[in-house]
Methyltransferase domain-containing protein (Mesorhizobium huakuii), 330 residues
Amino acid sequence: MIPELNFVSPLTRQPLTKTPDGSALLGGSDERYPLIDGIPQLLIRSGQVQASSDSHAYYRERASEYDHGIEVMFAMFLADEEQTRRDMFAQLELRPDSRVLEIGCGTCRDTIHLLDMPIDVFAGDLSLEMVLTGRDRLLRAEKNTSRLQLFCADVMHLPFADGFFDAAYHFGGFNLFPDYKEALAEITRVVKPNGRVVVGDEGIAPWLANSEFARILENSNPLFRHRAPLDCIPVDARQVGCRWILGGSFYLISFVKGQGEPPLNLDVTFPGRRGGSHRTRYFGKLEGVAPALRDRVLDAAAAEGISVVAWLEKTLGRAVQNAPSDGVDD
Ligand SMILES: C[S@@+](CC[C@H](N)C(=O)[O-])C[C@H]1O[C@@H](n2cnc3c(N)ncnc32)[C@H](O)[C@@H]1O
């Protein structure tokens, strides 16, 4: 197994140390994260910060019946589950020795296929019951788990340092996360620059929103009323893609982690009457003037055959040069 000391405190992001008897990970003055059945419980106690408690109770009670529900779902869409899952995480573009986070791994129905690759897999879930059911699946299938670390954590407070992963993946629980924007930001935080993020969940494709297909699905499961949360994608995302799978009933968002907002050349000058550049138009705004004066400025610029910005730069520049250097009011 990969050593648990790759984990940091989900509260402070400081490194954790293991107790001498190996029963818990310790952080700060009073942080204690027990290992239950060998699985680190990196969950923040309720009350410390907002945690995903509703989801926790829901999946704790459903771990045993969950797998049957998933088989029914793939049968309903006439889809091959293994192929569908492999297609989904193909978008992570994993390479040999990539380190991948799978959060919300549930009963390890994706994990089992990720383990076929020569990569390090950190598979975590809010619910210990789901993870234990998943671990049984991996043991029954006699999978090599030497490059797998299972853990329990909340997607809203991941126990990893910034940029720890080459890629991060989540499928199936996104619609129940308490804050989509913060969840995507937290998943993206733990991915390296240029690493990939892939998330998907129920959400009918826009062109099917008013179809009978949509009404039938939404009638049986209100989760299909969700829509792809495109407005929650972080501004540092690049090469963003969204496809709809399983007949158009689930969205799958993928992107590459960039840095900050997309680059923009502010100094390209625009042709035409208004002229100027983004820098002059956006950062160089002055107070407004009376409409009659504005019209005279437009006419004066046109008469000289230059853009309004060029005329203003020239005329105001000259006026400022001639103005007294002190005594200027705000
Ligand atoms: C529908 S299941 C999907 C499981 C698995 N990814 C699959 O495709 O079969 C959603 C999973 O997300 C987990 N989950 C829900 N909220 C979570 C949260 N805030 N943090 C981490 N996992 C969460 C649930 O416990 C559950 O196992």
